[in-house]
Design goal:
This protein is α/β, with parallel strands linked by helices and 246 residues long. It has eight helices and eight strands.
Length: 246
């Protein structure tokens, strides 16, 4: 049975999840998600995850261990550091692990196809090295996409739009990831949730006859990081996802 909401999940399922060893490598939006998880757990005391910030010597008991990996705007360093944490630093193979890129890892001069190929090869290597490990794939977070009068004028005149470049590249990475893993391995579509209201409406923008997802402004105070509402929305969906997939 797959659960849709926190309220649908029986207490024993949360108890089972709390016994799992999970590692989450991230940067700043990851801390937003952790804050959201803690806020959701306060409202739902049946969820008793042991959340620990660390990258070394993972306890053999259940824990949701998380840490920074790599450098922002250098996704290759995040991939390499994540692999190092799993292979060396933790000391044990976790039940599940996830690497989340940041929205700043996609920008005008980066080759998204190359980033995805590096990611794919690293995950394949980890899978061979740790056959018991469940790899959770995260789509790349988005930013909001405000459209000013200047942007509208450029659209009307058919000019190139640098304002759209970064979000388009994030969408392109996510399409590659979803095509490769969705339906085969667990994928947490954080971008999809950032673009979707709780009643299912999506925020999109169009460029050259193609539609792309953008982050809803109601989930962020600065256009990229999650606000309190966004934290709880993403964290709540992630917690249900973990119950369903680990």
């Amino acid at each position: 049975m797959r659960y849709q909401k926190i309220e649908d999940v029986p207490k024993e399922k949360w108890q089972t999840l709390a016994k799992k060893k999970i590692y989450f490598g991230h940067q700043s939006v990851g801390f937003n998600i952790i804050a959201g998880m803690q806020a959701v757990m306060k409202e739902h005391p049946q969820i008793q995850l042991n959340i620990v910030e660390s990258r070394r010597d993972m306890d053999t008991g259940g824990a949701f261990v998380h840490s920074k990996v790599g450098e922002n705007r250098k996704p290759d360093t995040k991939i390499n550091d994540f692999v190092k944490v799993i292979n060396q630093d933790l000391g044990v193979t976790p039940d599940a692990a996830a690497l989340k890129f940041c929205y700043v890892d996609a920008y005008d001069k980066i080759d998204i196809n190359d980033v995805f190929q590096q990611y794919k090869e690293a995950m394949s290597s980890l899978r061979k090295e740790h056959p018991s490990l469940t790899i959770i794939h995260f789509t790349m977070p988005l930013r909001t996409q405000p459209i000013s009068w200047k942007t509208k004028a450029k659209l009307f005149l058919g000019k190139e739009l640098w304002e759209f470049t970064d979000n388009i590249k994030r969408n392109q990475f996510n399409q590659l990831l979803l095509q490769e893993y969705q339906g085969k391995e667990p994928v947490f579509d954080i971008a999809g949730y950032e673009a979707t209201t709780d009643d299912g409406r999506q925020m999109t923008f169009q460029y050259k006859e193609k539609k792309y997802l953008a982050m809803l402004a109601e989930y962020s105070a600065d256009g990229g990081h999650l606000n309190k509402k966004g934290e709880k929305w993403i964290a709540g969906n992630l917690l249900v996802f973990l119950v369903n997939n680990i």
